[in-house]
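Suppose a colleague, Dr. K., hands you the sequence of a protein chain of 409 amino acids and asks what its three-dimensional shape might be. Before reaching for any lab equipment, you can write down a predicted structure in token form. Begin with the sequence itself:
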Amino acid sequence: MENSLVLVTATAGIAFSLLVVPLLLSDPQGDRRANRFLAIFVSILALKLTQRVLLYSGTLEVYPALTGFGRFMYFALAPLLYFYICALTKESFVLEKRQYWHFLPVLLALVSLLPVYFLGEEAKRELAVNYVETIPGNVDILTILDNAGDYTTVVYIHLALNIALPLHLMLYSALGLNQVRLHGQSIGERFSNIDRIQLRWIRVLCYIVLLLCLASLTWFLLFTLGRAEEMDSLPELVTVMLIYCIGLKSLRQPRVYVDNDGSGSGQGVVTDFAAGGRNRPHQKYQSSGLSEGDSERLWQNLQEYMAREKPYLIPSLTIAQLSEAMDVHAAHLSQVINTHSKSNFFDFVNRYRVEHAKALIRETLQSKTKMLTIALDAGFNSQSTFYAQFKKHCGETPAQYRRLLLDQT
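The predicted structure, expressed as tokens, is then:
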């Protein structure tokens, strides 16, 4: 019964992978460079599930040459996940030759598996049969080693890889979570709408990877104690959950930076300016820092510009666009906003949007215009962000603010 659950779960994961990988590679709205890393990641997960199907279906007994096929590639999972996150969160990310060392564990795993690959067909067949019989037989690791005979080295390789792989993935998942954290800090300094580029789902993805690692380590512990049958399908279940999360979320993830697909085409969530797409620094600020006087004047000019031109009504407004329009250096504009408003660009712009929304609520008090309409007219791109920012800056929700005004009339 347990073998059947492993087979069904693993087969479902493989089938879903065959659907997800082509979609990732052909998604016109996604970040193509990032999606390539993720497509290879999912393909290796499918390969891992395929090995389980071959083992538990008895196929390895018929075709023993497939034993351990591609297993060394499992150690590419961790860097592929990390580089996928980097490709999403770093502008113009390119995998450079100096970063190839991240894939060194793949080579080390291949070398360690050579004794397995060089075994004869009968030896591989015997290993497959003994492995499948070990789990329902509740045989502990000491008994396995005592009876390993000529295959003791192979058993030790199997044990070492089962420990090293989840630890490797856990390390890179932690690095990925840190990269998402840094990304969250960065986008607040550059973008006025961050709903679709916060990458919260990437945190969930990393947590599922960590759950997979814990599931694998738990299964391995039970295996060494001769009780692996109780949770033999757990790693497969979490793996399928991981593939499902990737398929559900990654295909809805737009590019954070337009040029990250390497093609220079298409429309992402964030675009630079309509004229040229490059930030043109003001000569006055290009080679030196801002003096206190310059900072005060720029802050005054910024406030006047915001009041006069109302650029905050543009939902996709970025600090690059604003600095282009004001003909100042984006870094200096960011510095002035941080210094004088005690907030980042995101909060600075949304404070103006909230004030504009308050004015719209007052103007439409009797007509009771829908809050979503007011939110969009004020420059917000979603009602959830509107409510969150309104509550943050006013201490009450838009509906509460409207009721208060109605009570005063």
